[in-house]
């Protein structure tokens, strides 16, 4: 094993405990930033560029038919690969914490739509769930199992807030373990079914789950109720016949008492377990090798790397799988740093350079010839940790698109909570969403008067239909204070005079003239 430090990380303040990484076609994307997304990257999804020990972040985009995806921290993620093409996959995202510390119970499917040297576009779709819908939670796991030609997702563990009926003033935002129920979720219909198994007595969170075919192995995890880290190794087997699914659980010997551990796959059947905690204040510096066969699992202690003094003496550490036998580890920075909330990062390689290149070529061949997913590992972190779950690569994308947090405006002065007009009534302390597209900030629109300035759509009395029409159309908008002035400054349009066709004169009716003798003859006959 080798340990290498990443020297420079741009915008490291966004990389805080709880975020995740998504791996599409070998490119790594960051999701779950600290705080709500800003205008420089409204999606909150970034491409991570690791080049020459430097990490840079570049904004990614969503397609027009995508739903809104909040920056969720500590969600459950797993990959769902296509049966037709093994190289096409999408991510399943469930639960997690929003920047307001609200818990989500929604399920999203994210897939890659297009990727160029300048722009990466994703599609995000929210999946409606029915039946025994899992409650909102975080720190849980989700895996994909395959049996008899069918696929389902399996959700287990996590934490949630205390129910409203049981809350007190002193412990209003306290969290509890979720019930140890196993949820089967059908992808096609979104139907959820919960199972209560007698072998699962205590709720677990921040555990490790590894899926292979129709079996899931659950290792470690922390229980809030007992304040213990489970030494048990659970084996969940899911059978998907034509009728109702069958779920069984077996407790196996040889487990590891650990929470927040990281699992990386180094071969088709071999994994490495790194990091985690023995207790609240004791890190686990021992590594283990996990050999996963079709019907059994073996866990043995392996050689650990030479940890640096900073890693040995730090109070906490965090990280996740980077793919192909590599792990990204992070430790808190010193309090005297100029940048607040900065962390130090290391890359732990569990294989040699030659083995890594050989594994890369083998993986590329297998991805073209096989549609089977050899394994799905889902590591999760404690409340002060975050997760990396993809491989770091060098990207040939122009550095001009690199996200720079210093370019963002101070929203407290020039952002959403400004006084946009004389009648502005938007207050950060009392504001509530008015439009269906609003979540945590008021909708704004740019007034094209002069150099331009932003105004609140609600203060302009814009209907939601008009707001959407203006946002989609390429037209200039003028606020209520500048619309009359703008009309006065406009050059009057040239009036085109219409040529009038001359009216034809009326023709006089022809009259017949009678002679005097004829008139006398006519009158004589009239009175006879």
From TrEMBL:
Subcellular location: Nucleus
Binding locations of Zn(2+): 420, 424, 447, 453, 456, 459, 479, 482
Chief site of localization: nucleus
Matching SUPFAM superfamilies: FYVE/PHD zinc finger (SSF57903), Galactose oxidase, central domain (SSF50965)
GO BP term, example: V(D)J recombination
PANTHER family membership: V D J RECOMBINATION-ACTIVATING PROTEIN 2, V(D)J RECOMBINATION-ACTIVATING PROTEIN 2
Name this polypeptide is given: V(D)J recombination-activating protein 2
Protein species of origin: Machaerirhynchus nigripectus
């Amino acid at each position: 094993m080798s340990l290498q430090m990443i020297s420079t990380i741009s915008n490291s303040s966004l990389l805080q405990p709880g975020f995740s990484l998504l791996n599409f076609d070998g490119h790594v994307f960051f999701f779950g930033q600290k705080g709500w997304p800003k205008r420089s990257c409204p999606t909150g999804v970034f491409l991570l560029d690791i080049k020459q020990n430097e990490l840079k972040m570049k904004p990614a985009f969503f397609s027009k038919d995508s739903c809104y995806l909040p920056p969720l921290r500590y969600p459950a993620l797993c990959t769902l690969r296509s049966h037709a093409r093994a190289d096409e996959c999408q991510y399943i995202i469930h639960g997690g914490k929003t920047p307001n510390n609200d818990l989500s119970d929604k399920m999203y499917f994210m897939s890659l739509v297009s990727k160029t040297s300048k722009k990466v576009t994703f599609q995000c779709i929210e999946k409606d769930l029915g039946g025994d819908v899992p409650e909102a939670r975080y720190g849980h796991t989700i895996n994909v199992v395959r049996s008899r030609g069918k696929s389902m997702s399996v959700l287990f563990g996590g934490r949630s807030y205390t129910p409203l009926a049981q809350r007190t003033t002193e412990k209003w935002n306290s969290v509890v373990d979720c019930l140890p129920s196993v949820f089967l979720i059908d992808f096609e219909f979104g139907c959820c079914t919960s199972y209560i198994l007698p072998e699962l007595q205590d709720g677990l969170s921040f555990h490790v789950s590894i899926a292979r075919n129709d079996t899931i192995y659950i290792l470690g995890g922390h229980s809030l109720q007992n304040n213990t880290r489970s030494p048990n190794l659970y084996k969940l087997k899911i059978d998907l016949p034509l009728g109702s699914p069958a779920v069984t659980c077996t407790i196996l010997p040889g487990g590891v008492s650990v929470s927040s551990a990281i699992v990386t796959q180094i071969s088709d059947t071999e994994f490495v377990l790194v990091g985690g905690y023995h207790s609240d204040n004791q890190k686990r510096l021992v590594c283990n090798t996990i050999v996963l066969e079709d019907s059994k699992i073996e866990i043995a202690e392996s050689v650990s790397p030479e940890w640096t003094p900073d890693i040995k003496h730090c109070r906490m550490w965090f990280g996740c799988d980077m793919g192909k036998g590599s792990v990204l580890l992070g430790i808190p920075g010193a309090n005297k740093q100029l940048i607040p909330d900065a962390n130090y990062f290391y890359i732990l390689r569990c294989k040699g350079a030659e083995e890594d290149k050989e594994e890369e070529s083998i993986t590329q061949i297998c991805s073209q010839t096989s549609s089977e997913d050899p394994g799905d590992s889902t590591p999760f972190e404690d409340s002060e940790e975050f997760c990396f779950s993809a491989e770091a690569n060098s990207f040939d994308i122009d550095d001009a698109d690199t996200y720079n947090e210093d370019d963002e405006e101070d929203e407290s002065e020039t952002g959403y909570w400004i006084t946009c007009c004389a009648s502005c009534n938007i207050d950060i302390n009392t504001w509530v969403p008015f439009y269906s597209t609003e979540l945590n900030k008021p909708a704004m629109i740019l007034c094209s008067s002069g150099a331009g300035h932003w105004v609140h759509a609600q203060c302009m009395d814009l209907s939601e239909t008009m707001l959407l029409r203006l946002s989609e159309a390429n037209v200039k908008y003028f606020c209520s204070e500048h619309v009359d002035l703008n009309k006065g400054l406009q050059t009057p349009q040239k009036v085109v005079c219409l040529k009038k066709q001359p009216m034809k004169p009326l023709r006089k009716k022809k009259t017949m003239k009678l002679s005097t003798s004829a008139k006398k003859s006519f009158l004589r006959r009239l009175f006879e």
